[in-house]
Amino acid sequence: MLTVFVIYLVIVFLIGVLAEKFISKSEEGFYLGDRNFGPWATAISAGATDTSGWIFIGAAGASYISGISTMWMLPGFIIGYLLNWFVVGPRLRKEGKELGALSIPDYFSLKLDDGKNILKIVSSLVIIIFFVASMASQLTAAGKTLDATISFDYNIGLILSAAFVIGYAIFGGYRAVVLTDLTQGLIMLTVLLIFPLYMIFFELGGPANFFNTLQSIDPLLVSSIGGATGAAGFGIFIGLFAFGLGEPGQPHIMQRFLSARDDKTISQGSFIAMFWVIVVMTGSNLLGLIGRVLIPAIDDPEYIFPRLTIETMNPLLAGVVLAAIFAAIQSTFSSQIMVSTQSFASDFLKGISKKTYTNKQLMFISRITMVTLGIIATFIALLNIQSVFALVLYAWAGLAASFGPLLIFLLYTNVVTKAGALSSIFTGTFVTIIWINTPWVAYLYELIPATIASITVLLLVSKLTKRTDSINDELKSTKEAKYYEQ
């Protein structure tokens, strides 16, 4: 098992390091891979960075506890993917290229002609805040996996995991991230397609017997909302369903559309992406249910799939599955640290400073930033304060509410003003942070009130400041006209 796992790590690292040879020595090369990725790389990379370690660790642990009610995530994610690939992706790719946007904060700033870069600065800080929490959750998943499978020390395991990913991302930049995502995503897809089907049909007596066994263990495991009723039941349903609706606001996923080669890439990639989400979301939830049948008692449910791997597979296959778990973790961690690095080293730094940096200086700053953010995320993970699933839900909600409504309104309407955009981002962020610290979070996932508040504020403030923006634009045009007349 360990040999297979080590071979996998070596292959991934080499792919990442060698990717440096295929990018231009520029910001666009380091952060977008020169906008030259086809449908398979775009779709699988987007899926792999989306699903992350919570698929094997968090989602499997959640279904182990709650049963089939966690499957409410699937229809929500299908709708979220449809929004991304058919509504957001095509326009974002086209407008991003026309504007020369290198990131979502950059797109917001260029689209709204924010000369003072306030939107870029605020957006980049929001990304860093939520991504550091999410990166910590990926390292937590890595530590738990190594602990459960090869009895490797949890703390040392997550530290080495962070060092490994930063090691290849620091050389090959975004291209390294996408190419390793593609490799790792295909491993994930294979395991999540084959393992649940094999276990249910050949080890657990078929689907009917499998679900009968679950019901005999606990009838709530086959309840559509886990036996909850009233407000609690509605909260469980809407929270799980709404999880997937946060897709359009995730910067690391939106980056895949900015880096896509052409419109054909998006249209072809959409079919690959839809197949991905159905297989991955269904497979991950079935993993937890299979674990509940074969291992009825476990101290930490998020250890269930690694334990299942060790106890039911021969060492060779166990090594492949261990590689798949790490593939999920590393693909998301690498993408998030890449986007976080860009948010600080490019968007934030250039937003607050008028100094012009050479490409060499920017690459140096980017690499130092990447290491620093990796250390911060590792420190948070070492605190081990929350489950993987809880951290992912929190970060996902914050980013979805802060950026999702604004992005869609910018792509499809002309009603948004700079003040409206800024107010929407602040509202999405603060409502998420406040809501999660209230008793109401037990009944309603923070993404929902934060998104509603963000949309409301976006439209209201934009309406109130529309005239101000128009006057400012007219004054700017007049000044420019007088300048050219002189």
From TrEMBL:
Gene3D superfamilies: Sodium/glucose cotransporter
Catalysed reactions, as listed in the record: L-proline(in) + Na(+)(in) = L-proline(out) + Na(+)(out)
Transmembrane helix among keywords: yes
Keyword Membrane assigned: yes
Residue stretches spanning the membrane: 64-87, 118-136, 156-174, 186-205, 225-246, 271-295, 315-333, 364-385, 391-412, 419-436, 442-461
Topology with respect to the bilayer: Multi-pass membrane protein
InterPro entries the UniProt entry points to: Na/Glc_symporter_sf, Na/Pro_symporter, Na/solute_symporter, Sodium:Solute_Symporter
Keywords: Amino-acid transport, Cell membrane, Ion transport, Membrane, Sodium, Sodium transport, Symport, Transmembrane, Transmembrane helix, Transport
Location in the cell: Cell membrane
Domain of life assignment: Bacteria
Principal subcellular localisation of the protein: membrane
Its biological purpose: Catalyzes the sodium-dependent uptake of extracellular L-proline.
Record PANTHER family: SODIUM/PROLINE SYMPORTER-RELATED, SODIUM_PROLINE SYMPORTER
UniProt record similarity statement: Belongs to the sodium:solute symporter (SSF) (TC 2.A.21) family.
Full protein name: Sodium/proline symporter
Organism: Virgibacillus kekensis
